[in-house]
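Researcher: Go.
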Amino acid sequence: MAPDASALHHEALTHVATTLHFFVPDDEKPKVLMADDYTQENRRTGTFRDEPVTIHNGRLADPAPALEREGFELVEHISNVSNFYDKDQIAVVHYPEIIRFLKENAGATDVHIFDHTLRVQDTDKRNANDTRGPVPIVHNDYTEKSGPQRITDLLAADRAEKFLSGRFALVNVWRSIGPDVQRLPLAVADARTMAADDFVATDMVYSDRLGEIYQIAGNTNQRWSYFPNMNRDEVLLLKCFDSAHDGRARYTAHGAFEDPSVPVDTPPRESLEIRTLLSFA
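Model: Structure:
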């Protein structure tokens, strides 16, 4: 089937002028108070502000963005999953697919998948499937503190020791699973354009544990990209933590944004993210 005119139009756009939702730093460490029912909105402390940004079409970048350089990479991946809302298919079919894929394409020697999250924009469909909504606030999933902590929290002691003894990374595998992702596509920042002060450590307060993420302060030096018209046979790899301090990308700021150029009748976003721990020992 040939792509429609709307898809061709968006893939040809060099950039989108829009806004991203940034945190405004102050003297207090911010908190995200996580709702026990994750179909509901979380509460956040602190001040946020929409700031104008130019988000570039990553499909037109030359060279193409790479996981180790910019912190994100678009890769073809065809899955045998027929229904991404089926938890059994995700666990039995998709998890092994992603483990094989990351060993082959990211060079990992060991891969542990600890979570997956469906994000659905339509409220009725979200409630019917017990899923989360897209996150418009720009963030990175882990910090210098919480990245290693996830290893010790999630793995048996001997396996955690193996991960921590060498280089390891936390990588999200993001996929559009709906008819169109353009209503709320994902913006990702080139890691090379981020300053240390752009990352604001933020407590994630759960009923049974305390985590930490980075919320992101706006900076005109940041360069943002997106990949229009992603389909089910593509995944976007996001580097959310890397233990190496050798110049490669370590964090990838990201967040959903409204694309003002899409038609108002564009279907709501549906996406899946697989959260993984990678060892390179």
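Model: The mean pLDDT is 92.
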